[in-house]
Amino acid sequence: MRGRRWALWAVQSAGAELCVLVGRMGAPKAPSLAATMDVMVACAAFVQAASGLTFGVIRCLQKFVNYT
């Protein structure tokens, strides 16, 4: 369980950093459009990976949560 939470944290952090990088690429001295699109696609991949990892963490936590 601990490894899954660390993986989720790492993937979410990487996605957030890429999101900030995409935002900073809009500056006047920005790199090419292709570089911006590459970073955006990588950001989207990390967001999708975080969504999948969330389901792995939730399944493990359901064993410990008492639904009354």
Could you explain how this protein is built, in words?
It is a multi-pass membrane protein. Keywords: Membrane, Transmembrane, Transmembrane helix. The chain has 68 residues and is mainly α. It has one domain (2-62). Helices cover 78% and strands 0% of the residues. The protein is built from two helices and no strands. It has helices at residues 2-24, 33-62. Helix 1 runs antiparallel to helix 2 (33-62). It starts with a helix and ends in a 6-residue tail after the last helix. The model has no long low-confidence stretch (mean pLDDT 83).
Defining key terms:
transmembrane, about 70 residues, nitrate transmembrane transporter activity, about 0% strand, mainly alpha, 2 helices, elongated
